[in-house]
Amino acid sequence: MTTAPHVWNRFARGWGLGFAAFMMVAVIRLVTAPDLNAPQRNLALVCIAAIVLAFLAFRPDMHVPGRGRPEIAYLLTAIVATGVACGTDSSLALLLCIVFPQVWLFSPDNRTGVILTGLLGLSATLGFMTGGGWNAENAGLTLPIMVMSTVFSGAFGLWIQGVIDQSAERSELINQLEQTRAELGRAHHTQGVQAERERLAREIHDTLAQGFTSIVMLAQVARAALPEEDSALDGKLALIESVARENLGEARSLVASFSPVGLDGSTLADAVRRLTGRFGQETGITTRIQVTGDLTGLTRDREVVLLRAAQEGLANVRRHSGAGSVSVRLSGTAEDAMVEISDDGKGFEMEDEVAPRGFGLTGMRDRARSGGGGIEVVSAPGRGTTITVRVPRDVTG
């Protein structure tokens, strides 16, 4: 899942420009102020330089606020420097307009933000009291303003942070909703595809398969009724029967590949055993099944991938291999699970790019990838074919 950019990313450039603008205004004020003597002016310039240098040295992250020690180090430096600058020239209270917001921009959490806001208010108050004199008159002017400024900054910072947190939660909920909607869309699509496959299986079974079966039976009846000396017509009827049987096998193979996966109420191993046994009964091909390892804990989606791989692999053996025997091996490890279908048929040339598409391997490969796994094919002319499909126990990404 892609993480949405933090809300502060929208204002990062503005905060940087604002910081630079306030520092420049402060410097211009100090350089042009006629009421400051040289020591005051130099001390205030040192404070501003300390804030700028600390910002450049610690490089607080403007893009994702509040990430660690560099931000805290910068804020502490800015708090102390702002207090000293306010003690030197009260007009430098304008520094509070940038440092108060930065406290909340760079604080890692609300508690730290409240503490640093209080420290900044205290530092500025001490600076104003030192610069204006420790007397009741100055205290009466300074304390109410600084208390109100500090309280307002803390309350406003908490409110803004609450809005940001609420927006982040809402964004996360929206992301989850979009993911759920996408998953429902995929589920509905899969159900629709499966329903269409089942409909096609019924249509093929009720029309083509039954038709080919009838042709085989009619050809057999016709051959039985022929005189023995009519060998030419018997050969033609035998060819008709052979072609019908071949196409009946193709129709049954399509029905098997389109039929629903038989996992309801049974384990993957039981379903593969039933599939292999039925394949042997229908084709007369010698079949062997071997189940090893731990197959528990697989999700239903990955079990379906393996069962479909076995189903389609056996269908390919029926249609193309001309094999006399086939073996199915199902195994599981701590990392993955696999199904392997091996036959002793005619095989094909691996360098031939047309053959894999004709053998239905593209669909098997796509199905394996959908489960986070992959497919391996080993074949050679006259040496049979071995297809191995693996899926991991856990899929990330």
Automatic annotation (TrEMBL):
Output the Gene Ontology terms for molecular function: kinase activity
Q: Where, subcellularly, is it found?
A: Cytoplasm
The cofactor required is: [4Fe-4S] cluster
Enzyme Commission number, as recorded: 2.7.13.3
Which reactions fall under this protein's catalytic activity?
ATP + protein L-histidine = ADP + protein N-phospho-L-histidine
Question: Which PANTHER family does the record match to this protein?
Answer: NITRATE/NITRITE SENSOR PROTEIN NARX-RELATED, SENSORY TRANSDUCTION HISTIDINE KINASE
The residues the entry assigns to the signal sequence are none
Q: Tell me what this protein is called.
A: Oxygen sensor histidine kinase NreB
- Gene3D superfamilies reported for this sequence: 1.20.5.1930, Histidine kinase-like ATPase, C-terminal domain (3.30.565.10)
Q: Which residues form the Histidine kinase domain?
A: 306-395
Tell me which domain of life the UniProt entry assigns to the organism this sequence originates from: Bacteria
